[in-house]
Amino acid sequence: LTSRIQTAMKNLSGKGKVSEGDLDETLREIRLALLEADVNLKIARSFIAQVREKALGAKVLEGLNPSEQIIKIVNDQLTDMMGAQAVPLNKSPKIPTVIMMAGLQGAGKTTTVAKLANKLKNDNHARPLLIAADVYRPAAIEQLQTLGRQLSIPVFDQGTDVDPRQIVKDGLKQADQEKNDYVFIDTAGRLQIDELLMQELKDIEKIAKPDEILLTVDAMTGQNATETAQGFNDALGITGVVLTKLDGDTRGGAALSIREVTGKPIKFVGEGEKVTDLDVFYPDRMASRILGMGDILSLIEKTQKDVDAKQAAAQLQKLQENSFDFNDFLDQLKQVQNMGPMEDMLKMIPGMANNAALAQVQVGPKDFAHMEAIVYSMTPAERLDPELLSPARRRRIAAGSGRPVIDVNKMIKQFKQMRQMMYKFTNGKGGLPAGMEDM
Ligand code: GDP
Ligand code: MG
């Protein structure tokens, strides 16, 4: 329940006119959301400065619906910075197109080779050859061979005793003979960037003259992903990036940072371990993901599945009357709490399996106890009307519940987010949430 933007936007919406102060407050929230999504601090700052300029320039402050305008500016700006459009793989005018992989150990190079080769084979009837040039772990060669067998794609290997440079030479020779149209070179990685690895990669590059040097970066490594990308780009000169493990609970802010720092396009994203879990990188989708729009929506959608029907109906009615209060909030939290690990359940919803925002909506048992304590420290009147919660009252509630004021504020924010989302649900064009249609 940490979608800052939702709250920030809520604070803005409803006001016909927004002051510069309001704008800055909103932008501060957006900056925090970016940082939470692992966007590099410097980049988040410059991003916000650009958005601010655009927002002021666009006379948003006098607009009728400023919140929508600002979110659009933010979204557009994010999308633009990530390249605006999907960038395809480079292609050589004459066969074969050579694609060389690079990246740290475990980043997903070998998996991505299989995914890409399989995609080319299926989409373009390509006849790829995979070269196993990671000779440091026998398991790495076996891994590529196994994938090749599964996909009926040939793999060239010479075991672990031959120098990878020689393997690449011989592999390319075979590709010439067999007239393979694509060659993928699966290289070794290290835990960290080091001289030896870079030298080997540079040598392979000289030999293979690849059309594409694809850097594979693990999105789960957060801020480190940016450093890794910069390191490889400086030393090797990459041509594109594959961001893997986006099925994890990361917001993907690395995508923005990597693009900014290297200037190289992110071409694909990995969204799972299976060979089909690969997607073209769409900057606009990633922008939404970074901003975390819709995470509250997911929570509510999920909650509806397990919610006691009667209670839900009663809540729905309250919501329609816009009278969702803290007591209902507490009930909601309890229901969420009773459902078990949020991720597990959300995975069952079509299209939800890859929603990285899920982890954000998790409420642990301790969090729940704290929230409960806070609500119990409110007077009945306060529970029914959150607008009563002045700073002085918040301090009193904090003292009463034994929680810091910051927690009280956070919970009130979360309450408002939930209320707003539920209000949208019940009044929006989307109709009733799943499972509640027949009530
Ligand atoms: P390499 O050392 O760079 O070749 O990395 P691998 O291709 O061997 O991948 C390391 C691990 O990450 C393996 O267990 C893969 O199954 C897993 N992996 C790779 N890409 C993804 C992805 O997009 N999502 C998930 N969940 N796992 C991935
Ligand atoms: Mg590998």
UniProtKB/TrEMBL annotation:
Molecular function terms from GO: 7S RNA binding; GTP binding; GTPase activity
GO BP term, example: SRP-dependent cotranslational protein targeting to membrane
Residues given in the record as GTP binding sites: 103-110, 186-190, 244-247
A Pfam family matched in the record: SRP54_N
Major subcellular location class: cytoplasm
Record's function text: Involved in targeting and insertion of nascent membrane proteins into the cytoplasmic membrane. Binds to the hydrophobic signal sequence of the ribosome-nascent chain (RNC) as it emerges from the ribosomes. The SRP-RNC complex is then targeted to the cytoplasmic membrane where it interacts with the SRP receptor FtsY.
Protein's organism: Oenococcus kitaharae DSM 17330
Catalytic activity line of the entry: GTP + H2O = GDP + phosphate + H(+)
EC number from the UniProt entry: 3.6.5.4
Protein name, as recorded: Signal recognition particle protein
Keyword GTP-binding: yes
Keywords recorded for this protein, A-Z: Cytoplasm, GTP-binding, Hydrolase, Nucleotide-binding, Ribonucleoprotein, RNA-binding, Signal recognition particle
Keyword Metal-binding: no
Domain (SRP54-type proteins GTP-binding): residue spans on this chain: 265-278
Domain notes: Composed of three domains: the N-terminal N domain, which is responsible for interactions with the ribosome, the central G domain, which binds GTP, and the C-terminal M domain, which binds the RNA and the signal sequence of the RNC.
GO CC list: signal recognition particle
Family affiliation: Belongs to the GTP-binding SRP family. SRP54 subfamily.
Upper taxonomic lineage: Bacteria, Bacillati, Bacillota, Bacilli, Lactobacillales
